[in-house]
């Protein structure tokens, strides 16, 4: 009798799993070509497959082509990390036309930009956490090529952030305190300058953004301009090359969403609900990216590291039953 009951339970369990997989079905997930996005995509694939019984698959993606394809063709089903301002009007229309949904924020703090200084410097000179303190101690920030100037590291040439950083340099009148702009030459040059300053205990001032591996490795403080955020100024002037009279404003957070197709959200409500709860703080993502860099890890290796070492984070996104399935799969 016990064998019959056991066999019946196994059949029931298999039937339940098949029903769940049938409900979720095949799910395509965009694997974007930068580290934070590929980590999130791998995490989503594993959780959907083992927690929700989906037939989940990663496919190559990038911001513009992925967003356009989701709107026009309904594929892929999920874009895990979408910097939505880059395609805002088209995405909003996709939602209005019942083609897309904004499931939730993949980066709960939003993408973060600003002018940064080493935390060790702020511990020694607390006022350097403000732009007025930076100006007061301008002589600490040595220019790498001109000993008579103080150095401000800008965004690499050709990047959009070079415009905003340059306009804010002018708005804050840093030149009047002896600062001159330093072009780092590349993203690697910029991150390398931050690393060098921190490892040598030197002063450093420049533009940077999060989440990034560098801010996971080194404690940096975002300088307060004392201006608050003026979004109209930022959109209409700070980010515009022809801005003639820029005013100080802090960088507003960049919204970073998880976007799904309406068809997926309707077909697999339990899996969709996971995306409404799943989100990373910049602090956690900075640490994860730093681990990837230190270990030369790919997205899948970082996914296993996250699921094993950050259980306090991801268990809050799923039910106890789903969490148990994921742990068993690990």
Can you offer a commentary on this structure?
By secondary structure, this protein is an alpha/beta fold. Helix content is 50%, strand content 17%. The strands form 4 sheets. A 3-stranded antiparallel beta sheet has the order 3-10-4, sandwiched between helices. Helix 2 links the parallel strand 1 and strand 2. The chain is globular, with a radius of gyration of 23 Å.
Which sequence of SSEs, written as H and E, runs from N to C? HEHEHEHEEHHEHEHEHEHEHHHHHH
- Work out the radius of gyration: 23 Å
Distance between the termini: 34 Å
Secondary-structure content class: alpha/beta
Count of individual beta strands: 10
| Number of continuous helical runs | 16
Main-sheet strand order equals 3-10-4
* Average pLDDT, all residues: 92
Which term fits the overall shape?
globular
Strand count, sense and closure of the main sheet? Answer: 3 strands, antiparallel
Q: Helix fraction?
A: 40-55%
Instruction: Estimate the strand proportion.
Output: 15-25%
Give the oligomeric state: single chain
Unreliable stretches, pLDDT < 50, 5 or more residues? Answer: 1-21
